[in-house]
Design brief:
About 35% of the residues lie in helices and about 15% in strands. By secondary structure, it is of the alpha+beta class. A hairpin with a 6-residue loop joins β1 and β2. Bound molecules: zinc ion. Zinc ion binds next to loops. The site of zinc ion has 8 residues, from loops.
Length: about 160
């Protein structure tokens, strides 16, 4: 059995030897040794050292948006300083060819790192204090109104029958 730690070549997150793909970004994992122990410390290894494992678990969720690649990488750097790994995705609905650095990006972080990441970004005033629209309040309200309407109808029918 190989006891070498597995590491993601994309985001630097370490994984146990029974994993094959990065849980954070889906890249095939490599043995950390094959990244080159004798070589000088690379940015990638530097990143891997900063990432806190407790922030690298769960599915990717969007934590913020950036106007372009440069801004997105700036935000990634800030998150990394707090130990939160992140990946970038092109914001859907913008027709910009892939080779261009222009176009908005979504910054995605693992679920377990989401609240830490938001704290960092809130402090830096890079995101507003709005709640993520995972469950739309208006939809919940709509269902409540439907429920009330049904209860009211039953009550009305009940009094009609009794009266
Ligand atoms: Zn990864």
């Amino acid at each position: 059995m190989n006891s070498q730690p597995l590491v993601c070549p994309g985001c630097g997150v370490r994984h146990s030897p029974d994993e094959r793909f990065c849980r954070a970004c889906g890249m095939p994992l490599v043995y950390s040794e094959s990244l080159g122990v004798d070589e000088p410390v690379t940015d990638r290894q530097e990143r891997a050292r900063k990432i806190k494992p407790q922030y690298a678990e769960g599915a990717l969720v969007r934590v913020a948006g950036a106007q372009n690649q440069a801004e997105a990488e700036f935000i990634q750097g800030m998150l990394l300083e707090e130990g939160v790994p992140s990946t970038l995705q092109r914001t859907r609905g913008f027709d910009v060819p892939d080779m261009l650095a222009a176009g908005p990006r979504d910054i995605m972080v693992p679920q377990s790192g989401h609240s830490a990441a938001r704290e960092v970004l809130l402090e830096a005033e890079l995101v507003s204090d709005e709640q993520p629209v995972l469950t739309s309040p208006s939809r919940v309200l709509a269902w409540l109104l439907v429920a009330f309407a049904v209860v009211a109808l039953i009550a009305w029918l009940g009094t009609d029958v009794l009266g």
